[in-house]
Amino acid sequence: MTTQETQTSAGPAILDFPTGFVWGAATSAYQIEGAVSADGRGRSIWDTFVSRPGRVLNGEHADLAVDHYHRYRDDVKLMAELGLKAYRFSVSWPRIQPDGKGRINQSGLDFYRRLTDELLDHGVDPWLTLYHWDLPQTLEDAGGWPSRDTALRFADYAATMHDALGDRVRHWSTVNEPWCAAFLGYASGEHAPGRREPAQAVRAAHHLNLAHGLAVRAMRAQGKDTQIGGCVNLYAITPETGSPADLDAARRIDGLQNRFFLDALLKGRYPQDVLEDLRAVGELDFIRDGDMETISAPLDLLLVNYYSRFTVSGTPGGAASAAAAPTDSGSPWVGSEHVSFVNAGRPVTSMGWEIDDSGLLEILTWVAREYPAIPMVISENGAAFDDELTAEDAVHDGDRLAYFDAHLGACHAAIMAGVPLRGYFAWSLMDNFEWAWGYGKRFGLVYVDRETLRRIPKDSALWYAETIKAGGLRVPAE
């Protein structure tokens, strides 16, 4: 695969991406589907979480979300009109198994069959994620991710989905961002299930990794011609200064955010320094013989979600997640609660996340250099801004357009540096339920009117469509 700069007959030069590069957009089930009680769907931990006062900004919930469950045909048509080559979506586990185990809800399974067929009929390749944080509530009641049994149940669910759709869906990923599910869900409490139990969060992190490995094994056993990947959210980490305290802070956050998951998936071990940090909250006797071999089952792809860079300090002051909810919460940084996160002065999104495309290039080249060779895909990358719909039914989101342009530029630079990057999925296809922030944070390429749920492509969507059509980025005129 090679890239080059070409001059088009229309005028501007294009930074070409490789032939076969995957151009897509991503969503997750709970954030867009709605229909939380339709057709036999069970209750998820997020249904419970949003029902608790003070957990979600303005008391908002996802009972309707953007009603993708009923509007999926129009949404797929819109994807095709924008020229998307692939669509990354997640499956609602409680829609398939209302109790998280046992009986299969055929109505739920049929929805994803219809969605898959609709995508294929429109020339959009389906990329399926098995878990994007909506654990069946019955499994949480039985212990949730801190319980080893949840990982076993996940493998059964993965096998069910893969058996049903593996003939039509070629690309699969297991657990989306296990760091968030473990540490925002069980340590800081800012995500469902809202627990603040640091020792249990560490157990959850391991069992999420184990669930991944068990699922890979279960799907491989079916012998289907599919590609399977693991999905991690990675951050470039910078110490505020060169002081020993700040260098140690960077080591700690890089360890828990990045290396704890990457080392497990790709090297079959946890970093020793991270294990020592985590022993501050208890022994790690839940890691059993054979677990790491299971977790590091060979993968076809590594899916990388990237949004920002962390600048950290070891000066005590209390850590706050970069995705901190608008409610009082504990620290997700188990064993490193003293680390502070510093605003380094870069422009920020409406989430308060600093914009740094150089961090994406840094992360991609680091993974390619430090880990066994594996094809990579950017499975999420995007930004929330305060979008406004004009009287002419347009959304002029220049900041988001610039964000995508810069980060795709970093992707191109990574490819030119030899990184085996195979695709890019913008987050998100459309505005949706942004977890504890409700509907106030808009990440979409497509604007969703909250009153009518009408979909309006933003300027960034039209730009992305032209980028896909051109097969690369326009080079600014000098």
Automatic annotation (TrEMBL):
Keywords: Carbohydrate metabolism, Cellulose degradation, Glycosidase, Hydrolase, Polysaccharide degradation. It is an enzyme of class 3 (hydrolase). One of its GO terms (biological process) is cellulose catabolic process. It catalyses: Hydrolysis of terminal, non-reducing beta-D-glucosyl residues with release of beta-D-glucose. The keyword Hydrolase applies. Transmembrane segments: none annotated. Substrate binds at residues 31, 132, 176, 307, 427, 434-435. Pfam families: Glyco_hydro_1 (PF00232). InterPro entries: GH, GH_1_N_CS, Glyco_hydro_1, Glyco_hydro_1_AS, Glyco_hydro_1_beta-glucosidase. Signal peptide: none annotated. One of its GO terms (cellular component) is cytosol. It comes from the Bacteria. GO terms for molecular function: beta-glucosidase activity. The active site is at residues 177, 380. The keyword Nucleus does not apply. Its EC number is 3.2.1.21. NCBIfam families: BGL. Belongs to the glycosyl hydrolase 1 family. This is Beta-glucosidase. It comes from Nonomuraea dietziae. The lineage of its organism: Bacteria, Bacillati, Actinomycetota, Actinomycetes, Streptosporangiales.
